[in-house]
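Lab manual, section 2.4: Encoding a predicted structure.

Procedure: take the sequence of the chain (419 residues), apply the prediction step described in section 2.3, and record the output as structure tokens. A sample record is shown.
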Amino acid sequence: MHDSRSARRVRRKAPYFFLSYAPAPVPGGDSEAEGLEPDKDVEEFHADLIRAVAGLSGSLTLPSLGYLDATDRGGPAMARALQSSHCFVPLITRRYFIDGYCGRQWTAFVNRTRRGTLLPVLWTPVPTTARPLSVDLGLPSPDRPTTPTHVDPEALGRYAKGGLYGLRQYPGGSDYYDQCVRRIAQCIVQAALRTPEPAPDEAEFADLDVPDAFDTSFWHPLGIAVLAPDIHHLPPGRSDTKYGREPRDWQPFSDGLSIPLAERTAELARNLGFAPEIRTYDEAEDVFLGRRETTSPWILVIDPWVLHDRGVLDRLRAFDARDLPWVTVLTALADDPQTRRAREELEELLESALPRRLSSGRFIQRGAVAGLDNFEAFNRRFIELADSAAQQYLTRVPLPSSTSHSASADPQGDQEAQP
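Recorded output:
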């Protein structure tokens, strides 16, 4: 990771920040360098951030204030900048977490002998399940006693929803974008004042022969519980065409694939970055009723025909009475004629079993509980709601690898930036 060569004359040349991002690949590129496309929006943001840092710090040496890791990756200039910069600014996109080069930069920076500040900046939205680390993606704010530069509440909301790139594309959003850039620059200047300059004999990075910070990440666990009859426990008169030997064999939707809904849901979950485990409701009920601690968010998939069983109806009422935001409920209405004829009766059973879920929460959550009558609708709602359950779970039980830019500040520095 290092060589023995000294980094002479690096003092006074340490960049305030190192901007790390994952460029889009170019189809047909013959090498890593040729296969990357410079991002003009990122380059413009880099220039805007340099100007903001210069204005807040009073520095006249604009070119050396920030280093943009562009498409010429891995050279000595990159190594020197990564080693000496005061602040590491990863520009977070979904692509960033699957770019091994970015992961190695992250590792190299956080393991430097001389600590710096890690300052993630959201560029485009990233679902919770696509983040291998629990990274705070809110707009950065300087630590006390510095007073944060003003950012309109609407700008904060739009940043959280669409990132800086979204603000750049938003009609009339240039003021919001500028406010966010100034706030980020304020944090960078504070970090530079807190972090000591590199010593003249400090060793340089020889290369990035370090682990990818994201390689050791895990998929987020997700429980999928199925509440449905099996072929031996059907309501009187119910056709057996949709059922199998176990509840998890239930196939409410007809598309010729002959794949149980639980397995199709698990495949959707894997595509979103989850590690799903399929259970019956009986197997999951201890978790839902608080008799066993949960270790994951959950999706509960219900066949309303099962609610003809009074015992099951009462058990589901007990589940509904509990406040479990990390459990998402989706009701699948089979596409057979018998279910279509019984729609009103099934809706009444659902209303009796899940009154709280059907009367509270967001509209799409209530709609998912009320019933989805084809796989396309089920697919859309699952994708929309699975990440919500994961966020609720992570809020309740945060991942131990959470990252905070303020925690990364060098403890030796006692100066406060007051730009």
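Check your result against the sample. The first helix runs from residue 40 to 57.
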